[in-house]
Amino acid sequence: MSMIQAIIIAILQGVTELFPVSSLGHAVVLPRLFGWSIDQSAPDFLPFLVVLHLGTAAALLIYFWRDWLGLGLAFIGLGPSEERRAQWRLLWMIIVATIPAAILGLVLEKLFKSLFGVPSIAAFFLIVNGGILFFGERLRRRAGDKTIAQMTWLSALIIGTAQAFALIPGISRSGSTMVSGLVLGMHHKDAAHFSFLIATPVILGAGILEVPHLLHAGSAGIGNVAWIAGGVAGITAYASTAFLMRYFGRHDFQALDPFAYYCAAFGAASLGFLILLG
């Protein structure tokens, strides 16, 4: 993989990871559409994608630093007692929402890895993702008014289970979790906020498992390229997060529809093109 190719994929990752359009699906489909000779089944391709996700995790930590600082202070027992209780409750909600993805990721690791090198599957699930976003908006009977503080343990588990399906290329992690939050009665902004918070432990967990493989692959030349690309992904992810939090704060009526139309159109066009390419 050349440096230019890696940076293009990194920018794509940073823009699409937080947008509900599946960054992983795009990372699998676009190299094939561009005709790049990248072996997506190679053992160092998935670790490369994980480093891009680590850049995204760093961006999320920086953007939501107040949340993580509050959680950290509560963890070490600092701050007013009422605030500590609220932060501990949020921390446990994040942990509960993280468990399903962690379990499925470990149990079905080989199956999910086998899908990363099949662009046609990712294109198909991009279409499915578009349907999830579209119908998820229409399952809402009214504008959500629940906040993160009002979330129940069951709600956190449901959102976390939805997040686990994003291990399939083409299914958006942020999209599936936001749709779950909306159906459970949350406002778009609160659904997005919680979605971004629970992304961090999942992404970091994936990094802990895969980065050693990347470091081992560094002797083949991809290591330095991946770390530079990870920095680019982090910068673009921060900008994407800032945009989306403003967007969802101002829109609470069919706000996911533009992303649904895009996923369906891009997925269908990509699938058709991939079939023609054979």
Task: Characterise the protein shown here.
By secondary structure, the protein is mostly helical. It has one domain (3-35, 43-277). It is built from 12 helices and no strands. The model has no long low-confidence stretch (mean pLDDT 85).
Q: Which regions contain 5 or more consecutive residues with pLDDT less than 50?
A: none
The shape is globular
Sheet of most strands: none
SSE succession: HHHHHHHHHHHH
Counted beta strands: 0
Instruction: Supply the helix-strand structural class.
Output: mainly alpha
Total of DSSP H or I helical runs spanning 4+ residues: 12
Q: Note the gap between the termini.
A: 23 Å
**Over the alpha carbons, how many angstroms does the gyration radius reach?**
18 Å
Q: β content, as a range?
A: under 5%
